[in-house]
Amino acid sequence: MTPNFLAKNQPKIKKILKILLLIFLIYIFFLSIVMMGEGFKGFKGLSEGLLQNVSNPIMGLVVGILATSILQSSSTTTSIVVGLVASGILGPHSIRIAIPIIMGANIGTTITNTIVSLAHISRSDEFQNAFRAATVHDFFNIIAVVILLPLEICFHIIEKSSVALANFVVSANLKGAEFKSPVATITKPVVHLLFNPKYPDETAGFFQKLFSPQLAKFAILAIALVCLFIALKYMVKLMRLLVVDKVERFFSQTIFRNGFLALLFGLILTAIVQSSSITTSLIVPLAGAGILTIYQVLPYTVGANIGTTVTTLLAALATGSIPALVVALSHFCFNVFGMVIIMPVKPVRHIPIRASIILSKIVIKNKLYPVLFILIVFFAIPIFILLITK
């Protein structure tokens, strides 16, 4: 390359380098979310212990919130519940106990994107947008539970629908399929290099060689949080440098042109990635950068709610266990019913939007408030309810 060529094409070269850097940062973002999941799995025993001691629907709901907040994965919580139902540990009415746990898991899984929004905390306007985008998911799932849990306790609408669907699936002789998440595939080599989940059956990861098993989990969690905050900080900066108005126009005129397309995109992307935590966290920096509005984010997150049930459905179909299938379908039915009840009615649909806007105006007044929100909603309130219902 001649100096003249480089000088002439310098703006294009710089733009290409910025795009490549953005792709690298997105990879680091994905990697940090996966590593967070591996780190939090160190508390899996605690979550299983909580889930085994559920005796009523309210207790099931708060245990579902707590277990998923600890594990950072509704799929993991649901998978544990499927195993408990199949084994009979939850007793003769296991499905009725499992459904509120799954409702709680839907609330607990939103903790990840709320944590992700904290990366924007040093920039008020950006943080307000990011926090709104994260908490609109929290409020939507909370409202869905407030509406559907009493109906489920009184009429068992989710249980009956799930049993009917399970009977149809069994009579149709549908079989499970194996599908691997592309995010898991591209991050697996690096994750295993740092922390191998299959150790001691396979070679130990870097942190497992340095520390005890428990300390290694804390180390990978700490590294994940650092990577997450760094990746998000520079992702937003780069997105702004790469002509935000063009990116905004692309999203507004294509994927997020209307609510249905946004919902469909959220559903398909989450079904492919197999993690609503990743797909809902991914749009937080886009909202922070001003590329997406809260009105575009809401239908996308509703689609992600439905998309995340695909993993459990495939796993349940593969097991051949009817109780496992009913539990997986109850997760699907809950999210579909939530969408059907809330999304078509404008005043109801605007409740999570208004709630997240009001909350975002409160939390920017003090940097401690968003942290308190996470601790109170996902831990303090569930623990308090758990103690008084025991």
TrEMBL record:
<keyword id="KW-0812">Transmembrane</keyword>
<feature type="transmembrane region" description="Helical">
    <location>
        <begin position="215"/>
        <end position="235"/>
    </location>
</feature>
<dbReference type="Pfam" id="PF02690">
    <property type="entry name" value="Na_Pi_cotrans"/>
</dbReference>
<feature type="transmembrane region" description="Helical">
    <location>
        <begin position="366"/>
        <end position="388"/>
    </location>
</feature>
<dbReference type="GO" id="GO:0005436">
    <property type="term" value="F:sodium:phosphate symporter activity"/>
</dbReference>
<dbReference type="GO" id="GO:0044341">
    <property type="term" value="P:sodium-dependent phosphate transport"/>
</dbReference>
<feature type="transmembrane region" description="Helical">
    <location>
        <begin position="97"/>
        <end position="119"/>
    </location>
</feature>
<keyword id="KW-1133">Transmembrane helix</keyword>
<feature type="transmembrane region" description="Helical">
    <location>
        <begin position="322"/>
        <end position="345"/>
    </location>
</feature>
<dbReference type="GO" id="GO:0005886">
    <property type="term" value="C:plasma membrane"/>
</dbReference>
<keyword id="KW-1003">Cell membrane</keyword>
<feature type="transmembrane region" description="Helical">
    <location>
        <begin position="255"/>
        <end position="273"/>
    </location>
</feature>
<feature type="transmembrane region" description="Helical">
    <location>
        <begin position="139"/>
        <end position="158"/>
    </location>
</feature>
<protein>
    <recommendedName>
        <fullName>Na/Pi cotransporter family protein</fullName>
    </recommendedName>
</protein>
<dbReference type="InterPro" id="IPR003841">
    <property type="entry name" value="Na/Pi_transpt"/>
</dbReference>
<feature type="transmembrane region" description="Helical">
    <location>
        <begin position="16"/>
        <end position="37"/>
    </location>
</feature>
<feature type="transmembrane region" description="Helical">
    <location>
        <begin position="282"/>
        <end position="302"/>
    </location>
</feature>
<keyword id="KW-0472">Membrane</keyword>
